[in-house]
């Protein structure tokens, strides 16, 4: 097996695929990357048994077909450090792989490609094509609310739902929930709901770009894959039942406060500096035309911010984890934000004041 | 080397605390050598002794048997810890009138950070003098104070003019004060360290300043670095404020027992502005979680009523009063107290989404 490639063409796919590979693994071959030359292209594969990423690079100059695995991190570090002036030649001789570039020569150990684990064959029952930017929006609008190492394992991921002309993502860690709806007009989709594990979600977000280029999403009973011109990403699904968001969305709220998003976001960020480091609580005091944000910490330091808002109604004092508020402000890409509230113990529904494709529910904090 | 200081710290140290309490409560002990501690036949140790005893060389932490050899007439007093604790609480309450930032070191000793105290035009010296005055007026005991911009200097200073004295080390004087300091006065320098330092020809902080840091570090390790800093007037430790206050209160013991509601209302009206001021001083207005009244009757029975309230409301004491007066039953009232309970971290609660249905 042999191929020659420019450093530029090789490096970025190599980095992407290496991202799916764990550095230290009990199974040595899982620290390796699979390189395969076949039909005029180089295929790079990385996996951690939960996710798999395959990237394809067209080869131009002479090559010899074959496949092998080498330590991923070492290969990437070497290629990253090589000069941009020379092409890289990769060649397998016996049990070693040699990398040549200019006057440099590196010999890496190999493990047989036959031993490299690949996700078993699976069938997709839902398929749709979506632009990378739309998919990215669906993911980035909600993924921050995913739980992390929660015993309720089904919360350590994101729910992806299809039904007719709707694609919906939902994530929740039990204190807050994020939901994003996308109106899919291309075709009518079957009703499915799956949970993509946290790592898979973060990998997909890393792989896709804010572009009009499309990807094909394929959902099977245990797997999901995202396929573009350059890569195929596959993730196992979390086997579990995701909570029903309809139970969590407040049905009726009594107070609607509309504010300039950038202004409140900055005010939250400043006030957070003097919130209790452990609990991150801030107090919101809502009165006619005004939102007051206050924070204090055990050192008796205090922050107070007053923001003009659109609101007429009864006064309300309610506490929140300021990090949750800031996350939502960051996820919204609107100018105006609307807080729908009821009382100090009831959840708040936060949304773009003009467009409610993304909905955020945050439970208050008793301060 | 110049160091700039931004804080005003006071170290308050009660004079011969346990012994002073005993002398206060039993004037017969006032002029004779006394010590509080365990008896010699039970291998006891001296906790505190008064100045007449110190004249004989008796010191705290000394074995009682040894103390008795030095001073055979020493009167040994068994400690009354509950009384000392009560006085200690009293003193701590006095501190809290000046600043919420208090680091108690023991029952009779504390650091106070008065940097943001608005009293006496912000003069730490005048604040320290007032604290000493109030302690003496309210407990009959004397305290010594050290005023300085850094902790260890404040602590050393409080010892300087003991008993019943004050020593102020202004920021500009720290350098000179530290330079002249014998090394044995620096907290942490014990017998063994002192011997090592003396062997190296080091006796004062000024000597350390002339001494190569690396060698000091090699000889004493981490403590060498710390000592080097101290000798250069560097001590950026802030006060370790214990836990947050759980309540703020005021009370008044009446000169004569009272029986009618109107009389109690009068006392409450007298106490209210003091409570409000105390709440403001402790920056507690945003942490109110309850409001309560305490009464002590002339049979010395005491009762407290407390209701959950998210904010302080003076008028609510009327409701509380109606309820608590039902417990009076013919008895006279000798003490009235008002207080608010404060939330602390354990009261913070993040509510959860009804994911599983409810």
UniProtKB/TrEMBL annotation, chain A:
Transmembrane segments: none annotated. Pfam families: DNA_pol3_beta, DNA_pol3_beta_2, DNA_pol3_beta_3. It comes from the Bacteria. Residues 130-244 form the DNA polymerase III beta sliding clamp central domain. Keywords: Cytoplasm, DNA replication, DNA-binding, DNA-directed DNA polymerase, Nucleotidyltransferase, Transferase. Residues 1-119 form the DNA polymerase III beta sliding clamp N-terminal domain. GO terms for cellular component: cytoplasm; DNA polymerase III complex. One of its GO terms (biological process) is DNA strand elongation involved in DNA replication. GO terms for molecular function: 3'-5' exonuclease activity; DNA binding; DNA-directed DNA polymerase activity. InterPro entries: DNA_clamp_sf, DNA_polIII_beta, DNA_polIII_beta_C, DNA_polIII_beta_cen, DNA_polIII_beta_N. CDD domains: beta_clamp (cd00140). SUPFAM superfamilies: DNA clamp (SSF55979). Gene3D superfamilies: 3.70.10.10, DNA Polymerase III, subunit A, domain 2. Residues 246-366 form the DNA polymerase III beta sliding clamp C-terminal domain. It is found in: Cytoplasm. PANTHER family: BETA SLIDING CLAMP (PTHR30478:SF0), DNA POLYMERASE III SUBUNIT BETA (PTHR30478). Confers DNA tethering and processivity to DNA polymerases and other proteins. Acts as a clamp, forming a ring around DNA (a reaction catalyzed by the clamp-loading complex) which diffuses in an ATP-independent manner freely and bidirectionally along dsDNA. Initially characterized for its ability to contact the catalytic subunit of DNA polymerase III (Pol III), a complex, multichain enzyme responsible for most of the replicative synthesis in bacteria; Pol III exhibits 3'-5' exonuclease proofreading activity. Belongs to the beta sliding clamp family. Forms a ring-shaped head-to-tail homodimer around DNA. This is Beta sliding clamp. The lineage of its organism: Bacteria, Pseudomonadati, Pseudomonadota, Gammaproteobacteria, Alteromonadales.
Automatic annotation (TrEMBL), chain B:
Binds 2 magnesium ions per subunit. Mg(2+) binds at residues 13, 108. Keywords: Cytoplasm, DNA damage, DNA repair, DNA replication, DNA-binding, DNA-directed DNA polymerase, Magnesium, Metal-binding, Mutator protein, Nucleotidyltransferase, Transferase. GO terms for biological process: DNA repair; DNA-templated DNA replication; error-prone translesion synthesis; SOS response. Coiled coil: none annotated. The record marks 18 as: Substrate discrimination. It is found in: Cytoplasm. Monomer. NCBIfam families: PRK02406.1. This is DNA polymerase IV. It comes from Opacimonas viscosa. The gene is dinB.
